[in-house]
Amino acid sequence: MEVCGYKIDNIKTSFVISNHILALFSFNYIENYSDIITLILLYQLSSLGITAGLHRLWSHRSYKAKLPTRFLLMLLESSCFQTDIFNWVKTHRVHHKFSDTEKDPHNINYGIFFAHIGWVLVKRDETILEEQEKIDILDLKNDPIAVLDNYLWPYDDFFMCYILPSIYTLYYENSFMKGFLLYGCLKWILVSHATWCVNSFAHMYGDRPFRKDIQSAENKWVSLLTVGEGWHNWHHTYPYDYACSDEGIFLRWNPTKLLIDTLGFFGQTYDHKRKKNTN
Ligand SMILES: [Zn+2]
Ligand SMILES: [Zn+2]
Predict the structure, then answer these.
(1) Assessment of whether the complete model's pTM goes beyond 0.85
(2) Segments in the chain below pLDDT 50
(3) Label partner for 108 (CA 20 to 30 A): which of 40, 68, 172, 231?
């Protein structure tokens, strides 16, 4: 099927629409404030798998992590159901290589809808697929955790995203569906839209103090939604910086940096690369 010249990816589109429809039914299962707080905490926790794991560790190699931490980050990113590590990294490295051009998988110049969710729903352009295949992922192939995730996908994501929360609520609240709909489908919606906001809103709205010739911008609202990933003008200027922001955690909302620093304190992460020595 084609819409506005774009070929629709039927599997991904069905998956996205199903999640949105099922998430509507999840509201019937919200019984008190603690359910909402649990939902928000799980959304934030899962998001750390994307920001600290898929993005800052595996895509940019901005710091190193020991095997138990990499395994933990793999479990967290799996709970977000955003493809396997290999594919996520290839897409993101192409995004940085060709930011805001026609080879960018979520090119902001095609409009905010395309950059946010449209690119997920359509079949990827041949030229972008070719560029993805040229991306060097030898580092991932040498990482047993990334290889394991690639081998287990999509079963690990399905289990972590939908089945584990369902087992949790079945055990503690005698309801399989509550976990599936609320902490599975609705949480997937929250994490996914937050992640997509980086590609859409943080490539359109905000200040550009570090490089004015690029579209990525400093957006505090996106940072709030994405555990600190909205300082995007800095990030596209210095993508190797593990903090993904110019200042430390007291001046820039950045729970992901706090997590990496805490893990670093216990020796679980090391070689934190930084543009300048701020904390
Ligand atoms: Zn970007
Ligand atoms: Zn990046």
Answers:
(1) yes
(2) 279
(3) 40
Residue (of 1, 28, 185, 153) closest to 89 by Cα position: 153
Domain residue extents for the chain = 2-206
144 preceded by a cis bond (ω within 30 of 0)? no
| Residue for token pair 């099927």 | 1
232 CA → ligand 2 middle, Å: 8
Give the number of residues written for the chain.
279
Q: What is the pLDDT of residues 209-261, one digit of tens each?
A: 999 999 999 999 999 999 999 999 999 999 999 999 999 999 999 999 999 99
Task: Tell me how far the alpha carbon of residue 80 lies from the centroid of ligand 2, in angstroms.
Answer: 18
Ligand 1: centre distance to CA 4 (Å): 24
Ligand 1 center to 100 CA (angstroms) = 8
> In this structure, are residues 161 and 184 in contact, taking their beta carbons and an 8 Å threshold?
yes
116-132: b or e for each residue (b if 16 or more CB lie within 10 Å)?
bbbbbbbebbeebeebb
Ligand nearest to the CA of 98: 1
Q: Which residues contact 31 (CB under 8 A, 6 or more apart)?
A: none
List phi, psi (to 5°) of 73. Answer: -65, -35
Our separate counts of H helices and E strands in the chain read 16, 4
* Burial environment of residue 188 by CB neighbours within 10 A (0 to 12, 13 to 18, 19 or more): buried
Q: What is the DSSP secondary-structure string of 70-106?
A: HHHHHHHHHTTT---HHHHHHHHHHHHHTTTSTTSTT
Q: What spacing in Å lies between the alpha carbon of 154 and ligand 1's midpoint? A: 25
